[in-house]
Amino acid sequence: MVSNYSPDKIFKLDAVKKARFVASAIFLIAIIAAFFIYPLAWNSMIGKINIILPVTLPNFVNVPFKLGLDLAGGTRLIYLADVSGVTGQDSASAMSGLRDVIERRVNLFGVSEPVIEVEYSGSDWRLLVELAGIKDISQAIALIGETPFLEFKEQRADAETQQILKEQKAGNKDFLTQDPYFKPTNLSGKYIKSAKVEFNQTTYQPEVSVQFDVEGAKMFEELTTRNVGKMIGIYLDGFQRSSPVVREPISGGSAVISGKFTIDEAKKLVEALNAGALPVPIKLISQDSVGASLGQDSLDKSIAAGLIGFLAVAIFMIVFYRFPGVIAVVALIIYSVLVLALFKLVPVTLTLAGVAGFILSIGMAVDANILIFERMKEEFRAGKGLGSAIDDGFARAWPSIRDSNISTLITTGVLYYFTTSVVKGFALTLSLGVIVSMFSAIFVTRSFLKFLPVNSLEKIPWFMGVKKLKTNN
């Protein structure tokens, strides 16, 4: 017996069967996405089924949403960086190095997903540090403040020292903050490769030995070469810890920091230097803590606002567009599920601004459906068959949907790359929502409309939101 089945038949489905296949696939994806968002529903059901079945079915993977500082609670710190000792062209590079050092430092303490960003405002460079889950501001400040600022200075000429002391004695404001004995150099903790505790062979006191990287070793050799017979000032967090006299040029990139350390102090300094010394000094200018209860309250209000907005949009669509409106609401539910699953999958750090972007994207998803339905109603009202009106409605609405969404994506792209973290969260969630909304309008809504009982609805145009059809008399 020869079977009439051919694999080619699956690719030669008629329009109705294709619509059924696409709709079934969409529903399946939406169900999986829903369990991905809320795995407790699946796991609870499977727990009951596993009691009966001889085999154990697996639980659904549980991936939590990433909540930002304003939703999860935590600490926000803003530091002002002193780049006066850095040339203008190197300020951005120094701030980039500062951000990297602070990020490494914070990561050592296991802070989940810290946000560390550099901001330039006017003539000031600032460092924004957001630590989700850290409620104790003093603990957060300790995470940053314990990172030392290490710098190496060379001795001034006697005439220069006497001149600065004279000006300071006279009360000259331009000289009051200057160190009369040492002047800054470009060599700092930024160039440290490693640090370790050693003991002086003469005094048996603990010291900190540092090893510079290639660039730092070259700078240290040049520094010691031009200062033979003079002192090198080694400063930690603005305080001089030691000032050894250079007997000869030092190559190899090694230096020793002494200064009556206890063993514990030396160990802590080594840990901090290995985590990264700051390339520029920083000063805390703002601190803010968001409690867990306040964050939960903000989250609850955001969810409530989203549900109210969704309900209002659903009522409007059903009242105004009737049967297609019901389909639009179903498509909107699927859209929301897919977007939330995508937020988990990427993952996207959800903030209040990000939630606002998601809610706005729901409105934009409805906007695409409105364009389609209005075009469809125009074609149907003009006397075309409902099936043709649906196809022509999508074809005519697509250019408007495409152009409006592309213009929105361009705007979100500009917002994401040229603004701060709060606005970036809004731009990211809105852009992802817009992309998914295009998929929802073209595939989900269209596939569901193909299931409409065209012959029956043509006789009752009210169900399609059309009061009266034009007649060809």
Structural overview:
The protein has 473 residues and is of the alpha+beta class. It has 2 domains: 74-289, Gyrase A, domain 2, CATH 3.30.1360; 291-464, Multidrug efflux transporter AcrB transmembrane fold. The chain is 55% helix and 16% strand. The chain has a 4-stranded antiparallel β-sheet with strand order 3-4-2-12. Strands 6-5-9-10 form a 4-stranded antiparallel β-sheet, covered by helices on one side. A 3-stranded antiparallel β-sheet has the order 7-8-11. A hairpin with a 2-residue loop joins strand 9 (232-236) and strand 10. Helix 13 (386-418) packs antiparallel against helix 14. It is elongated. The two termini are 58 Å apart. Residues 5-12 have low confidence and may be disordered.
Helix and strand run: HHEHEHEEHEHHEEEHEEEHEHHEHHHH
Structural class estimated from helices and strands: alpha+beta
Number of domains: 2
CATH class identity of the largest domain: Alpha Beta
